[in-house]
C-alpha cells in the first residue's frame, strides 16, 4: 500500500496505521492538509476491514421528534421553533405511542427520539413518553435525548445530571444518540450555539451514562465555520473520554445543511470534505468501534462511497426525519429494508442487520 501513496508527506502516517499505532493531533492535521483522498481512504479502509471485514451494519428504526419547540437559537438549526410559531408542536406521550404504532416498520428494534428545549417540559414529560413507549412496546429499545436536553432538563427540573439519568433509566431509556456535540472548541461553540450546554456538560452526561454501563453514540457537525484544527481537537477529546470510560459505540460525522438556518449563506460541505472526515475519523478514533455514514444526511450515494472510506454502518429505515429535511436534505424520509440491503450490496459490502447495541440479529425480515 505504501508505494501507492502519492502524497509523500503522509507516508509516515500510513506506516503508523499499518503498524496499528495511535495517530497524534499533528497527524490528524496533516491528513486534513493532504489532497490525497484515495490514500487516506485506503488507510481508513484498511482499519475498517481489520475491524469489521466486509460487513456494513444497518438497523430497523423509527425516528420521532417529541417537540420542535426550542428556546435555544442555534445558528445551524432549521428544526427548532419558538413556542409562538404556528408550526411548533409538543406531542403528548399518548400521541407519541400512537405515531409509533402507526409508523413502526416490520421488525423494528429501536425508536430514536430527540427534540427541542422547552422550559415548560420537566423530567416527568420525558419519563412519561419513555415509560408509555416501553409499556406499549416492551421489546423496543428507546434511544433518546442528548446531553443538551439532559443538561437543560436538569436545570429546569432543579436536579443533577446524574439524577436525571437515573430517572430516565428507571423509565426505560435504553441508550443515547450522539447529537449535541457539534464542535467542542469553545470559540466555535460560542458562534454556532452559544446558549446550549458546553463540552463539559456534554461529556459529563456521557460519563454518567457510561459509568452505569449504558452505551451511547457521538457526533461532530462539519462544514460550517470550523477549521481542521477544531475537528481534530473534537476527535481527540472523544478519544480521550473513550480511553477512560468506553461506552461510545459509534461515531457519526454530520454534514451541515445550511438551508433555512442562520448560516444559509454558507455553501454546503463538499463531497471531498465529507469523505475526508469519515476517513480521518476512522483513523483518529482507534477506540470507537463503529463509524456511521448516515444516509439521510450524506445522501444515499455518498453513504455508499463512505463504506469504502472507513464507515461500516449506514443507519436504518428511519421512516420519518425532520432535523435534516427542515434544513433542505433531499434524501427520502425513510427507506425499506430491501432498499437498504440492495444499496449496501451494490457497493460490494455485506448488509448485516443489527440492534441498537450492535448485536447482529439475523437475516432479512421482509
Ligand atoms: O446535534 C442539526 C445536527 C444533530 C443541522 O446517534 C444538523 O445514531 C446538519 O445527532 N445540518 C442531531 N446537521 C442528529 C444526531 C443523530 C442523527 C442520526 C443518528 C444519530 C445516532 C444521531 O443534528 C444535532 C446537530 O449536530 N444538526 N441541524 C443542520 N442544519
- Tally of helical segments: 14
The CATH architecture classification is Alpha-Beta Barrel
Largest sheet: 3 strands, parallel
The strand order across the widest sheet is 8-1-9
Strand content: 5-15%
List descriptors.
binds ligand V47, 366 residues, globular, 42% helix, 11% strand, TIM Barrel, three-stranded parallel β-sheet, single chain, alpha/beta
Care to describe what's here?
The chain has 366 residues and is α/β, with parallel strands linked by helices. The chain is built from 14 helices and nine strands. The strands form three sheets. It has a three-stranded parallel β-sheet with strand order 8-1-9, with helices on one face. α11 (271-284) links the parallel β6 and β7 (290-291). α3 crosses α11 and α6 (147-156) packs across α9 (199-211). It starts with 10 loop residues before the first helix and ends in a 13-residue tail after the last strand. The model has no long low-confidence stretch (mean pLDDT 96). Bound molecules: ligand V47.
Please outline what is shown here:
The chain is an alpha/beta fold. It is built from 14 helices and nine strands.
Reconstruct the topology from this structure:
Blueprint: H1 11-19, H2 25-33, H3 37-52, E1 55-59, E2 61-64, H4 93-103, E3 110-113, H5 123-136, E4 141-144, H6 147-156, H7 161-171, H8 186-193, H9 199-211, E5 216-222, H10 228-245, E6 248-255, H11 271-284, E7 290-291, H12 295-298, H13 300-306, E8 313-316, H14 337-346, E9 350-353
Parallel strand pairs: 1-8, 1-9, 2-3, 3-4, 5-6, 6-7
The structure holds ligand V47.
Ligand V47 is lined by residues 76-78, 177-180, 182, 217, 219, 221, 252, 254, 256-257, 261, 294, 315, 323, 327.
